[in-house]
């Protein structure tokens, strides 16, 4: 009986050894295949958007600056006023009947101790942005912005958030009516539409690459 047990154990050891050798060989083959794919640039991991690479994908001021660039009609993205028109239509609920003219775009505009993240002055409109990514609202923030910019030419107030929620700090009837909610996914859809319909943007390939890279960031971060 002991002899049989010993012989059976020896068979098991030999079989286990063969299986281990086969497993090691398979693992070596897979590692070689993996290393070849990596060397050829065919095994890709990590972020693909520039803002994710530099750690700014959720940085509020960076997104405000990107919006400022995209809303500057003479900037090298080639969109002209295509993107601006979609934002104005979103705020007014009406189609733009005449070509828009953007006169000035300013990041971080302070009035009476309160900051507007972005302001766009046009010939017959003014866009005032309160941009939120992860930060919460400050006390009376939207009420103050309304008071500070309500006398601008045809002011349009935009409360921009990842999910398009309403501002908590727009408490008066007038400021509540003035602020239009906007989500980052809606911004992405507007930007995609503007890019697809802009002949100039298509012709400026390098600038279109920048816009497309930003669109990828918006999709990955906000949906």
Question: Would you kindly provide a written description of the structure presented here, covering whatever features stand out?
Answer:
The protein has 223 residues and is an alpha/beta fold. The chain has helices spanning 2-39, 50-53, 60-70, 82-92, 141-149, 173-178, 184-197, 199-203, 205-222, and strands spanning 102-111, 114-122, 126-131, 155-161, 179-183. The chain is built from nine helices and five strands; from the N terminus they run ααααβββαβαβααα. The chain has a five-stranded mixed β-sheet with strand order 1-2-3-4-5. α4 (82-92) crosses α7. The protein is elongated and about 100 Å long. The termini are far apart.
Outline of this structure?
By secondary structure, the protein is an alpha/beta fold. Helices cover 52% and strands 17% of the residues.
């Amino acid at each position: 009986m002991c002899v049989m047990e010993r012989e059976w154990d020896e068979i098991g050891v030999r079989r286990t050894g063969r299986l281990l050798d086969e497993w090691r060989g398979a693992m070596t083959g897979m590692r070689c295949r993996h290393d070849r794919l990596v060397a050829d640039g065919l095994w890709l991991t990590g972020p693909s958007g520039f803002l994710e690479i530099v750690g700014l994908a959720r940085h509020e001021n960076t997104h405000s600056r990107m919006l400022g660039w995209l809303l500057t009609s003479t900037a090298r993205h080639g969109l002209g006023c295509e993107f601006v028109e979609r934002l104005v239509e979103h705020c007014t609920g009406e189609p733009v009947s005449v070509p828009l003219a953007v006169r000035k775009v300013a990041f971080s505009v302070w009035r009476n101790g309160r900051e507007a993240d972005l302001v766009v002055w046009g010939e017959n409109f003014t866009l005032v942005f309160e941009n939120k990514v992860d930060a919460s609202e400050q006390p009376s923030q939207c009420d103050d912005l309304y008071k500070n910019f309500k006398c601008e030419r045809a002011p349009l107030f935009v409360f921009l958030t990842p999910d398009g929620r309403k501002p908590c700090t727009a408490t008066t009837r007038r400021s509540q009516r003035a602020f239009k909610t906007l989500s980052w996914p809606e911004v992405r859809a507007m930007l995609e539409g503007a890019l697809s319909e802009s002949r100039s943007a298509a012709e400026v390939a390098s600038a279109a690459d920048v816009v497309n890279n930003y669109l990828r960031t918006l999709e990955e971060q906000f949906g």
